[in-house]
Amino acid sequence: MLTLFRFFYRWPLPALHALGGALGWLVWVLSPGYRKRFRANVAQAGLPFHVARPAIAEAGRFVAELPKLWLRPVDQSCVDNAGMPVEMQGQAIAQEAFAQGRGVIFFGPHCGSFELGPQALAEIYGPLTAIYRPARQPWLAAIERVARQRPLFKVLPASLGAIKAMHKALKANEAVALLTDQVPPEGLGLWAPFFGKPAYSMTLAARLALQTGAVLLPVSCERLPKGRGYIVKIRPAVDLPANPDLTSAVTCINQAIETIVLSQPGQYLWGYGRYKTPRQTAATKDPV
User: Which terminus of the chain has fewer CB atoms gathered within 10 Å of its CB, N or C?
Assistant: First the structure.
């Protein structure tokens, strides 16, 4: 499989996105369950189907661009890479956040190129620490371990040690990155509204912010048409209510995610099971 990744790495980005668009539509045609979940999530967000329809192809483009993102040489910048240009917007917002000296939590949804976004942020605002849930397939997990490690970008498998590393980074006024619309394992989240429907939601970003005072910055990485590159958008900080509890903080984060999704509905992974019941785990409480 690594050989196949290396083969596609050599393709130009426009060609990969063209292939990925076709792949996205193939999955749509072949999977009734995926189509049903996609349509249901779009309707729950109050959007007409045609607004979200481009996301069918974009889901395939996300998969097709992974070889380009994962096998990029560690000394090759993604921000200055002519073959994969990345434009940064909202840098003044990030500079203001770091100036407060409390650390920064970059967070975002399954929207656009959410794999590339943290890489670009690490190049400019690193060191940056992120955690991920390793793939169940051994071959994919092996690629992830190697491909996600970059200068100034520390990516750790989800564990108590990884969460402690995030605390340490924030106390040093560094950055962390989290994908906050994923469904955490049972016991590691709480039920909070997402587009008006209860969704089991990650508490980690909220807990980190409440415990360290770190600034919460929503971020998205938009994929430009025809493989022209990407735009990373850093958005205004989330204002938590006075004396917030955990539920209100998580709800504010979910609302920020909704804003990002509504701003680029054609690139959100509407087929993701956002409202599913969390999987069981041996953990009985949030380790933060």
Answer: N
* Chain mean position to CA 128: 14
pTM higher than 0.70, yes or no?
A: yes
Rg (CA), the chain: 18
276 within some domain: no
Per-residue confidence band for 242, with pLDDT thresholds at 50, 70 and 90: confident
User: Which DSSP string corresponds to 95-163?
Assistant: HHHHHTTS-EEEEE-SBBSTTHHHHHHHHHH-SEEEEE---SSHHHHHHHHHHT-BTTEEEEESSHHHH
Are the beta carbons of 103 and 215 closer than 8 angstroms?
Answer: yes
Domain count, the chain: 1
Assigned domain for 277 exists: no
Integer Cα distance of 257 and 277 in angstroms? 20
Nearest Cα neighbor of 95 from 43, 173, 181 is 173
In this model, does residue 288 exceed pLDDT 60? no
Residue 220 contacts residue 108 (beta carbons within 8 Å): yes
273: in domain: no
- Does residue 238 contact residue 208 with C-beta atoms inside 8 Å? no
* 285 located within any domain: no
Cα separation, 34 vs 282, in Å, equals 29
Q: Using one digit for the tens of pLDDT, what is the confidence trace for 116-160?
A: 999 999 999 989 999 888 777 777 777 776 677 778 988 888 888
